Amino acid sequence: MKDHYSFLTPFYNRLTKLVFGDQLMLAKTCFSENLAGEKVLIIGGGDGLDYQVFKDQLAGEYWEISRSMLQKAEANLKESRLSFRLGYFQAEKEKVFDEVWLHFVLDTMLDEEIISLLGEIRNSIKPDGRIYLADFFAPKNAIQRGLHRSMITFFRIVVNHKRASIPDYEEILLSQEWTKNSEKEFLKGWVKAQIWRL
Ligand SMILES: C[S@@+](CC[C@H](N)C(=O)[O-])C[C@H]1O[C@@H](n2cnc3c(N)ncnc32)[C@H](O)[C@@H]1O
Q1: Ligand 1 centroid to residue 127 C-alpha, Å
Q2: Which CATH number do you get for residue 163?
Q3: pLDDT in tens, 56-78
Q4: Atom of ligand 1 nearest to the CA of 13
Q5: Of all protein residues, whose CA lies closest to atom 11 belonging to ligand 1?
Q6: Per-residue pLDDT reduced to its tens digit, 142-173
Q7: In-domain check, residue 3
Q8: Which atom of ligand 1 is nearest to the CA of 12?
Q9: Which among 69, 143, 171, 172 would be 20 to 30 A from 116, CA to CA?
Q10: Which residues form the Methyltransferase type domain (predicted)?
Q11: How far is CA 72 from CA 11, 47, 77, in A?
């Protein structure tokens, strides 16, 4: 599997902090208050640096398709009880999770990939399980629109990003019978953190 992120991995986190400060980290962590006893599935978690605050409480699985990101995450979260897996997540019999974290990963996928991933998640989540989504939504003003266009162009060139638009996460999740329970907005609503249940 080609690692499209290998060039970006060493400075990905610093770059996002330079552009967005702590806002993306806050969107990723705002709902994660009580992780003790929770079995977490993290898909496309990147270098895992923003999860270090609760590394001692993290248990479950961490899936990445970038080898370089996965290696960094393994080093950054070595005190956790996560197992680190390279590749595309697939449901496994009798393996179920309380929480699934999808942080800034769905915006890199085509609609049909998102639908297929949601199917795997449905087969891997407890009846009261939750998806924690954090991602970019429609930009709210001209500056955000300009920045968003530049980001998409940058990611299409540097990491072979397949999309030129933002997925309609809500339409897709609703069509797959997920229900939104909570939402917090960051950067005037350009970034949202949401909790979804079946
Ligand atoms: C834009 S980066 C975001 C990384 C991290 N979640 C963050 O917020 O800093 C997207 C990450 O998702 C990973 N990724 C993309 N599609 C994936 C998939 N289907 N399964 C697992 N990881 C995936 C990429 O390798 C990359 O590390």
Answers
A1: 26
A2: 3.40.50.150
A3: 999 999 999 999 999 999 999 99
A4: 9
A5: 44
A6: 999 999 999 999 999 988 888 989 999 999 99
A7: no
A8: 9
A9: 69
A10: 43-132
A11: 11, 5, 8
What ranges in the chain are assigned the alpha helix state H?
A: 12-20, 23-29, 67-76, 111-122, 142-158, 169-175
Structure tokens at 87: 């590749």
Could you tell me the end-to-end alpha-carbon distance of the chain, in angstroms, rounded to an integer? 32
**What is residue 4's predicted lDDT score, i.e. its pLDDT?**
87
With respect to residue 4, please indicate whether it lies within any of the assigned structural domains. no
Cβ of 54 closer than 6 Å to ligand 1, yes or no, is no
Residues 31-61 pLDDT 10s: 988 898 999 999 999 999 999 999 999 999 9
Q: Which residue's CA is the nearest one to ligand 1's atom 19? A: 88
Q: Please check the confidence at residue 176 and state whether its pLDDT lies above 90.
A: yes
Domain count, the chain: 1
Q: Is residue 40 part of a domain?
A: yes
Residue 88 Cβ contacting ligand 1 at under 6 Å: yes
What's the token pair of residue 197? 């249940």
Q: Is residue 1 part of a domain?
A: no
Whether ligand 1 lies within 6 angstroms of the CB of 103 is answered as: yes
Query: In this predicted structure, what is the pLDDT of residue 33?
Result: 82
Average model confidence (pLDDT) for the chain?
A: 96
The domain of 169 spans 9-197
